[in-house]
Amino acid sequence: MTGMDTQEHQIDLGHLMAFDPLHHFPSPPTSREELVKECLQKGTVLVQLIADALFNLPSTEDIDGPLVKLPPPMTRLPREKHLPKPKPPTKWELFAKAKGIKNRKKDKIVYDEQTGTWKRRHGYDRVNDDKDIPIIEAKMTDEPGEDPFAKRQAEKKKRVEKHEKNRLQNLKQAVKVGALPSHIQLAATALPITGTQAAPKKASKNELQDIASMAAAATASGGKFDKKLVGEKPEKHKGKYRKFLPVVEGTGIGSQEKQQTEKVLNRLISKNSHEILNVDKAINMYNVKKEKKRKNQRGKDSSTSSKLKPKKQLQKKSLKKGGSSKKGKSK
Amino acid sequence: MLKIKTPKSGKARREIEKRAPKLVESGKKTLILQGTKTSNVLNAVLTEIYHLKKDSAVRYTRKNENIRPFESGGETSLEFFSLKTDCSIFVFGSHSKKRPDNLVIGRTYDHHIYDLVEVGVENFKSMESFTYDKKLSPKVGSKPFIAFIGEGFESVDELKHLKEVLLDLLRGEVVENLNLAGLDHAYICTAVSSNRVFFTHCAMRLKKSGTIVPRMELVEVGPSMDLVVRRHRLPNDSVRKEAMKTAKEQPKKKVKNVSQDVIQGKVGKIYVPDQQVGSVALPYKAKGLKRERREAKMKHETNDRAPKKQKENSE
C-alpha cells in the first residue's frame, strides 16, 4: 500500500515502516538541537501517515483493544534459513505408487480370535502377540530338532532388523537431497574397518589417566620438579627400570643370581625351540573339556532324542617330556 | 556405520523443531557481543540495544579475540555462535584507535555470514539521560514504527544497505493481527549526510483528535546516536537469490465439520454432548428457597405423623 499523499512517501504497513526519499537537509545542519527538532518533526509526520493508514484498516474488537489485520509486508528481507526441502519418497512409497497400493486406515481395537475379546492392535496386551500362542502345530517340513517358538522370535528379530536397515537407507537418500527431518541425526558409530586393523577401542578413564601421567613425566628432568596438578594420578611404574642384585646376599630362600640367569636362559631357549608344550595350559584345557563332557552326559540322560548330542570330538594332547622345556612359557 | 539419533525427551524434540527451517519465518534473534577492547560508550550502546530487544536477543559479555568479521578467517567463531544460539543477526562491538566505537551489524543465512555493515557510533545519549513522563515508557516486545528520512537512503549504496539491515534489526516479530492499543514506540533514522545517519528512539503518545485516527506525538525516550558508515559487505549474488526465495502459498488447512452448500451457504455441524438437565447445579442459592424448603420440611414432618395416626384409626 503506497501512501496516497502528494509527497512521495513509501509506506510499508506490514513492517510499520515509512520512508521519505525526498527530504534533503540544507548543508550543513545548523546545530544539534535544531537537527534533532527537525528530525522529530519529520518523524512525527511520517508516523502520523502510517497511523492514518493503520487506523483506517477494518478492525475487529478484542478484549484488549481493536485488532487489525496487517497486510503482508512489501519490502522483502532475506530469510534466515533455507526453505525446507520436501522429503524424497521412500522405497516403499515408490513401490506403492507404481503398483497402485493405497493406504488403508487401520482400527485401533481389533477382535482377537483366540481369546474372543477386543484387544488393541499395538502395545500392551495386543492382538497377535507371539507370547500368547499356546500351540504350534508341526508340519511335515519341520526339522525335529528346532524350537518353533524360538524360530518365530528369530524371524521377527530379522524382520525388525531389515526394517531398520531400510529406514536407514531411506534417511541416507534424504540426506543426499538435503531433506533430513529435523529431529533425526545420522551419526557415525565406529570407524570403517581398514584392512586387518580392528576398530580402535575407546580408552577408559583409568587408561587415560595412566597415559597422562606418563606424558607428564616426559620432560628433561623426568617430571621430578614439576608441580603436580589436582587430580593427577602418580606414576604407576616410577623410577627404576633396572633391578640390580645386592652385592652381599643375606640369609634368604636361595641365590637370586642363579634365578636371574636361569630366567634369562629359559627365555632365550624357549624362543628358539619349536616343540614347546605349555603344561599348565594343556592341563587346564583338558580339565575344561572333561567338565563339559560330564555336563553333556547329564543332559543326555534327561533328554530323549539322541541327535541332540553335540558333535564335538575331544582331542587329547600328548604329553611330551622335555627336560628344560618344562618351564617353557609360563604365564 | 551410521546410527539414527533421535532426541529422547519431548523437550529436546520441541527445541529442535523450533530451530528447524520453516516455510514462513518469524522474528530473527539477535546476538550481541564484543571484541577485545570496548569503550564505555560502546558498552552502553550494546547494553541499550540488548534492552530494546530483550526477548529476542542474546548478550555475550566475554571478550572474543578471534572474531574479525571483515577478514576471511575471522568469521568462524561468529558462525559457531550463530549456530549455537540460533541467532541470525549479530551486533559486534569493538574499539580501536583506527576505528573508535565500532559496531558491526551482520546477518547470517543458514548460519553463514550473509552481509555486514560497519558503523561508528558518535554523540551517543543513553536512555537514562532523557527525562520524560514515565507513564509513556514503551513496553518490551511491542511492535515499533520505523521511519526513514532522507534521500541518502536511496541514492547512496551504503545507506541503502544500512536501511535494510536496520529494518531487519528493529522490526521484531512478524505478526498478522496487530492490537492498536499496544503501539507505543517509534524509531527515527535520518540521513543527515551521505555517510551519517541520526538514529533515535521515541515513545508515542496518542492524543484524541476528531477522527478515528489519533494524533501522534513523539517524545524522545531511548538512546540516540549518530551512525557513521565505515565499511560494508554486500551478499553474494547467488546466496542473495537463494535467501530471497519465498515459499509458494500453502494450501489452507481444511476446517473440520464445515462445508459449503449452494443453497444454504456455509453449513457447519455442531456436536452437543448429552445434557443432564436434572443434575445441573443451580447457579445461585436463593435464600427464600432455603427458607421455603426448611418450612416445607417441618410441615412435612408434622403431616407425616398426623396421617399415620389417621390410618391406624381408620383401620
Order of helices and strands of chain B: EHEHEHEEEEHHEEEEHEEH
Q: Level of helix content of chain A?
A: 25-40%
Biggest sheet features of chain A: 2 strands, antiparallel
Main interface pair?
Answer: A-B, 65 and 78 residues
User: Biggest sheet of chain A, strands in spatial order?
Assistant: 1-2
- SSE pattern of chain A, N- to C-terminal: EEHEEHEEHEHHH
* Structural class label of chain B: alpha/beta
Total E-strand runs of chain B? 13
Shape of chain B: elongated
Question: Mind telling me the C-alpha Rg of chain A?
Answer: 43 Å
Beta-strand portion of chain B reads 25-35%
Shape of chain A: flat
In which order are the strands of the major sheet of chain B placed? 3-2-4-5-6-11-10-9-7
Low-confidence stretches of chain B: none
- Helix segment count of chain A? 6
Taking all Cα atoms into account, the compactness measure Rg of chain B is 33 Å
Question: Quick one: biggest sheet of chain B?
Answer: 9 strands, mixed
| Proportion of residues in β-strands of chain A | 5-15%
Distance between the termini of chain A: 91 Å
Helical/strand content category of chain A? mainly alpha
Number of helices of chain B: 7
